[in-house]
Design brief:
The protein is mostly helical. It is built from five helices and no strands. Keywords: Membrane, Transmembrane, Transmembrane helix.
Amino acid sequence: MGRDVRPLEDIVLPGIFAGVLSTLALGALARVAGKRPAAPVSAVSHWVWPQEVNQTARPRARHLMTGLAIHHLLSIGWAAGNAFMLSAIQDSTKPCRDSRSEHRQRIALAGAMTLAAAFSDYVVVPKRFTPGFEFHLRVPQIAAVYVAFGAGLVAPFVLENLCRRRPRAQ
């Protein structure tokens, strides 16, 4: 591969952005649904404590911390897949690369990766390993969470680009 994947800039940062934006969306949408903001992300803790899945409506600290840890680690994992896939795509299209096509590639790939994550979370994996958002949110709300996740995958690059374009005051 010609383009190296930078661990911090291409994986960790987008993973953190995706995790944080989707966590904020989970909290806000839970609030709109009349639930506790921590409930959907705490539901992910059913991976560790399946017998306590019903307790995530009023989550304990251990449910919240476990849910956050799993959610953010998986967000970084999906960001890693996104970074390596982007690297492979950019290597194959090297002669015709410009900043606009790179932006389109990033956005398209983040959308595809988000769809893959949602499909994996709710179709591929057994019910025992779904995120658990469905215990507290409806399908349109869960879809909005995945949109926030996808936005997080490209947010660091958009912000970096905006900072580069902005003229500095002297």
